[in-house]
Structures are given as structure tokens and as C-alpha cells.
From TrEMBL:
InterPro entries: CheY-like_superfamily, NreC/VraR/RcsB-like_REC, Sig_transdc_resp-reg_C-effctor, Sig_transdc_resp-reg_receiver, Tscrpt_reg_LuxR_C, WalR-like. This is Two component transcriptional regulator, LuxR family. It is found in: Cytoplasm. One of its GO terms (molecular function) is DNA binding. PROSITE patterns: HTH_LUXR_1, HTH_LUXR_2, RESPONSE_REGULATORY. Residues 3-119 form the Response regulatory domain. Residues 142-207 form the HTH luxR-type domain. The modification 4-aspartylphosphate is found at residue 54. CDD domains: LuxR_C_like, REC_NarL-like. Keywords: DNA-binding, Phosphoprotein, Transcription, Transcription regulation. SMART domains: HTH_LUXR, REC. Pfam families: GerE (PF00196), Response_reg (PF00072).
Amino acid sequence: MIRVLFVDDHEMVRIGVSAYLATQADIEVIGEADNGEDAVKLALDLRPDIILMDLVMDKMDGIEATKLIVSTWPEAKVIVVTSFLDDDKVYPALEAGAASYLLKTSKASEIAKAIRATYNGSAVFEPEVTNKVMKRMRKNQAPALHETLTVREQEVLHLIAKGRSNQEIASELFIALKTVKVHVSNILSKLEVQDRTQAAIYVHENGMLK
């Protein structure tokens, strides 16, 4: 049996979802709470397999409750079930340790599926939550080394990858040989490579060759 603690300040929500979960042979609701303070106490006392956690509640919200539960009991698996998709709810809830994130518009059957999936180690997110997380990851991702090159340095790098010498690069780009040498030095430094051969390999490995 998957033992579930249900935390929500709306009694009708708890009654409706709990009634459906009671029909599932592998899920049992072992406790309920309508605020974060009681949720923390029950979670640490009962040690349920899954905690269904509302976010906006009296006494203590679901984010703080999740943080306290997970910090004390790292194995806790919290599924947020809320009406909110705002950034100030989604990110803090995930950072607090929520394993999955659903909306209250989800069908009871979908919540049951999420309980099983989360219990088995998977994360279940509303599509919009997944999009938010991916966008933040892309935004926070460090730029690729070649993205730090200037336009001129990229031109020089492409010619290096094509096997051109410094003199040939100077002729093709109509710049001084001394300037080419400066660009090559900057390119090697920015790409964190030792020589022109490694720079050329970097270009090919990253699909940069035009």
C-alpha cells in the first residue's frame, strides 16, 4: 500500500479526492491536515510514502511546510496540488523539495497516477511547470565557450578550422598579420585549448563549420 498524507485547507477537496483514492487497491490515505503546521507534525509522526500538499493555507503555507519536512526527513516525497502556477509559487515549492507539481484541476485519477509515479521515483509536473523549469535552466545555463568570441574571432576560427595559415587568414579578411596573431591568441584562450589543432577540433565537434 502507498500511504498518503493529504494536506489541504478545503475540506471538500480532501473529501472528494480521498473518496476516489479509497477505491484504489494500492493507495491508502492515512492522515489529513488543513494547515502547514499540522502537516509537518503528521508527516514526521506518520512518515507517509506520499504527501499531497496544498500551498496556500493558514498558520503555515505549503512551501514552508515542505521545506521543514524535507530538511528533517530528506526521503519525504511531496506532491504539490495547488491552484497556482505563478513563479513565486512554482520555483519556491520545487526548491523547497517538492517532487511533483499538479493543479487542483487535475482529475482524481490523474492524482492517483502521480502518486504511483512519484512513489516509484518519477517526477510529475503540469506541462506549464515543465516549460517554466526548462526556460529557467536554459536562462541559467552558462554560454558555450565559442559564444564568448567576437564576430571577427569567429571568422578567424572558421578559417583556422579550414586549415588556413595566419598569412592566408590575413589576406582573406584584409587585416594585418599581427592582428590575426592577436585574434588567434584570444581564440585559444577563450576556447580553453592549447593550439590551432585543438581549436579546429572544437569547431568540428560543435558543428560550427560553415
